[in-house]
Amino acid sequence: MARIAGVDIPKTKQIWVALQYIYGIGRTTSINILDEVGIDRTQVVSNLTEDEVNRLREMIAKTCKVEGDLRKENSINLKRLMDTGTYRGLRHRRNLPTRGQRTRTNARTRRGERKTVAGRGQRRGMTKK
C-alpha cells in the first residue's frame, strides 16, 4: 500500500479511484492532480514507482487541504456558526437538518432513533372501550 497524506490507499485500485480514499479529494480533484503530475489515470497503484508516489505526495501537500487540516477547519466553521447563534448553527446544535428539509416526517438519519413520547398512545377523537 502506498501512503499518501497519512492514508494507506488500496494497491489494487486504479490511482484515480484510490486517491479518493483521502478525505478532501473527490473525483475531479483526483483527476486534476494526476493530469498535473503526468500519471496515467488508469494505472493501478501497485504499479506506481517511488518517484511517482513522491510527486503525488508533493502535489497534494502543495495544492490541497486534506485530512486533519480540512477536518479541523470544518469543525471550526461549525463551531463559529453555533457561537454566533445563526439559524444554521442552532440547527447543528439541535442535530436537525440545516438545509430546509422537512422534519415532520423523514429526517430520521439526522434525528436518530424514534423517541417514544408519553400520551401519544390514543388517537384524538377515539374513545376507550
Describe the structure.
The protein is mostly helical and 129 residues long. It folds into two domains: 2-64, Helicase, Ruva Protein, domain 3, CATH 1.10.8.50; 68-111, 30s ribosomal protein s13, domain 2. Helix content is 45%, strand content 5%. It contains six helices and two strands, in the order ββαααααα. The chain has helices at residues 15-18, 27-37, 50-63, 67-84, 87-93, 108-111, and strands at 2-4, 7-9. A two-stranded antiparallel sheet has the order 1-2. A hairpin with a 2-residue loop joins strand 1 (2-4) and strand 2. Helix 2 packs across helix 3. The mean pLDDT is 90.
Mind sketching the topology for me?
Elements: E1 2-4, E2 7-9, H1 15-18, H2 27-37, H3 50-63, H4 67-84, H5 87-93, H6 108-111
Antiparallel strand pairs: 1-2
Short description:
By secondary structure, the chain is mostly helical. The chain is built from 6 helices and 2 strands. It is elongated.
> Sheet with the most strands?
2 strands, antiparallel
Count of structural domains: 2
Structural class: mainly alpha
How far is the first residue's CA from the last residue's CA? 69 Å
**Overall geometric form:** elongated
Classified by CATH, the class of the largest domain is Mainly Alpha
Portion of residues within helices: 40-55%
**With helices defined by DSSP (H or I, 4 residues minimum), what is the helix count?**
6
